[in-house]
Amino acid sequence: GFGTTSYCRLVEEMCRRDASLSVFLGAHLSIGAKPLLLYGNPEQKAKYLPGVATGETICAFALTEPGSGSDANAMRTTAEWDEAKGVFRLNGNKIWITNGSYAELFSVFAKARGARGNGPGAFIVRRGQKGFSNGPSEHKLGIRGTATTELAFQDVEVAPEDVIGEIGEGFKIALETLETGRLSLGAGCTGGSKECLKMAVEHATERTQFRKTIISFGMIREKLSRMAAHTYGSESAVYLTSGLIDRDHRTLPVEAGYCKVLGSETLWEVVNDTVQVVGGIGYMDEYPYQRSLRDARINLIFEGTNEILRLSGTLEALKEPSHAVTARLKAEKAGLGAEGLEQAMGAIAGQAATVPRWVPEVIAAEGECFAAAVTAFSAKVVDVLRRHRRRILGQQYTLRRLADGAIQLYAMLAVLSRVSTRIAAVGEERSAKEILLARRFIEEAAVRVHHEVEAIETPRDGFDDQLAELLGEEGRYPAPLF
């Protein structure tokens, strides 16, 4: 079968043609069948995967509930063990299930209770089982070619042999499954960005105003250049991640989440700029732009909202430096002087001001730019952890800025790696296009990182808290003029 990189390439190309088809495929393979692939036993794989591979058996992934979206712990669907019949009885509802109207095989997550174990579990449910039903397909803003439905389970009997993995592993299985979905979603968004850029450039080179094609105007050039550079950065991050997964055979949940955030926000920006470049026709139904705009919006929401991925990814990434800071603070209490503490903190920051050795001379300035951004960012991470310690868990404003800085740094690293490899393979002259894209991306990304570092904590945070409280109390715009 496909490796991670090959699968991402497939999803990218499909998304260039039809976002709904790409989402359908992702729900089937990226997340629907993935629990079986990752945790299914040999008997389960032999029974179900051949039909999944041929497309005869379509899969769906059922985790989200009316009261449980990003907070999977709030899940209320239950799987009660029935000792008399030797089955789990599944009861509850799932919502917004892609492929829900026609999937034959569902990976359903529920909280198990009883003699067979307690805790979250993953269960195989087949269409046609007594007590299982789905609602009508939802009417959606975009990706209208997909079937998104509610699922209902009323005393659905699930045999022990249809439990995926072990009872208690449900959340672990769900998270590892979603990692694959997030990375391929980032790849799909990259494909969408490329297609939108192509449409924008075609229009800009054909449309004439004031006796000039509009691609000759500065503000249009800026948009097109930014669209191309950001797409290059997103693409580089996706395929660096997929390559590492294929090479090392390991999971990279933080990096996969960052690729989803970067890819989806790049596409949203690119499609918005495309509509602006093409002008009035971008708002008309008979042209493809409005569909691209509608289809793109969901990517910032599903597979984990971008807000949740920023928080979870950054908290996970902070574990290692947090342990180091804690050790240094303990040393301080044991008698380490202030000067020694500062030296220790500097060591934790990583001495990152050296340019990676593999960066060619032609892009040495970009390597220096990256190293300076890493140094500033890592020092700020140490400072934040030293001041907040465990309180960092509740500092969402700070965590969001750290996440945005980390995402940009990861993309910068991916771009440097990609363009350096290209130069080594074919030479500087034949790499001129990629060098230009890399320079444009890294210059802007570095500015973003330094901005997040400088604004890591700002008085605006207090204003945001106060305004949110006020809005919650009044339930409307708080200062009507009339």
Can you tell me about this structure?
By secondary structure, the chain is of the alpha+beta class. Among the domains are: 4-168, Beta Barrel (Butyryl-CoA Dehydrogenase, subunit A, domain 2), CATH 2.40.110.10; 318-467, Butyryl-CoA Dehydrogenase, subunit A, domain 3 (Up-down Bundle), CATH 1.20.140.10. Helices cover 59% and strands 12% of the residues. It has 15 helices and 10 strands. The protein has helices at residues 4-17, 19-32, 34-39, 42-54, 170-206, 218-248, 253-278, 289-296, 306-317, 319-333, 338-348, 364-388, 396-426, 432-454, 459-474, and strands spanning 59-62, 78-82, 87-98, 105-113, 119-126, 132-134, 148-158, 163-164, 208-209, 212-213. The strands form 2 sheets. Strands 1, 2, 3, 4, 5, 6, 7 and 8 form an 8-stranded mixed sheet that branches. A two-stranded antiparallel sheet has the order 9-10. Helix 1 packs antiparallel against helix 2.
Task: Tell me the radius of gyration.
Answer: 25 Å
Give the rounded overall mean pLDDT: 92
Assembly context of the chains: single chain
CATH-derived architecture of the domain at 4-168: Beta Barrel
Highest-level CATH class of the domain at 4-168? Mainly Beta
Helix-strand makeup class = alpha+beta
Question: How much strand?
Answer: 5-15%
Q: Please tally the β strands and state the result.
A: 10
Taking pLDDT < 50 over at least 5 consecutive residues as the criterion, the unreliable ranges are 331-352
What's the helix-strand series? Answer: HHHHEEEEEEEEHEEHHHHHHHHHH
* Annotation field: number of helices: 15
The shape, in one word, is globular
Named CATH topology of the domain at 4-168: Butyryl-CoA Dehydrogenase, subunit A, domain 2
Major sheet: size, sense and barrel closure? 8 strands, mixed
CATH superfamily of the domain at 4-168: Butyryl-CoA Dehydrogenase, subunit A, domain 2
